[in-house]
Amino acid sequence: MNYLNSDQRLALLMHGGTASTGGKTGLAMLRYSPLSIVAVIDETQTGGEPGSAHGD
Questions:
Q1: Measured distance CA(32)–CA(1) in Å, rounded
Q2: Residue 11 C-alpha from the chain's centroid
Q3: How far apart are the C-alpha atoms of 51 and 55, rounded to whole Å?
Q4: Coil/strand/helix, residue 7
Q5: pLDDT digits (tens, 9 = 90+) for 6-45
Q6: Helix (H) or strand (E) holding 12
Q7: Backbone angles phi, psi at 40, to 5 degrees
Q8: Number of DSSP helices (H) and strands (E) in the chain, helices first
């Protein structure tokens, strides 16, 4: 089984999950993951910072 290593970069695909409770896993990854998250992709949000989409 392949797992992510701390030296790998991660992009989150969240289609509408940054502005609703539908993206609970993705939002938890943004807040608590030790992995390097380099992109958050959400077709309903354009520009801005990820924190502004979910209230941080």
A1: 23
A2: 7
A3: 6
A4: coil
A5: 888 889 888 877 777 777 888 888 888 888 888 888 888 7
A6: strand 9-13
A7: -120, 120
A8: 2, 2
Listed in sequence order, the residues at least 6 apart from 2 whose beta carbon sits closer than 8 Å to its beta carbon are: none
Q: How confident is the model at residue 52 (pLDDT cuts 50, 70, 90)?
A: low
Element spanning 41, H or E = strand 36-41
| Alpha helices (H) in the chain, listed in sequence order | 24-32, 50-54
CB atoms < 10 A from the CB of 39, how many?
10
Domain ranges of the chain: 9-48
Q: In terms of C-beta density within 10 A (0-12 exposed, 13-18 middle, 19 or more buried), how is residue 11 classed?
A: exposed
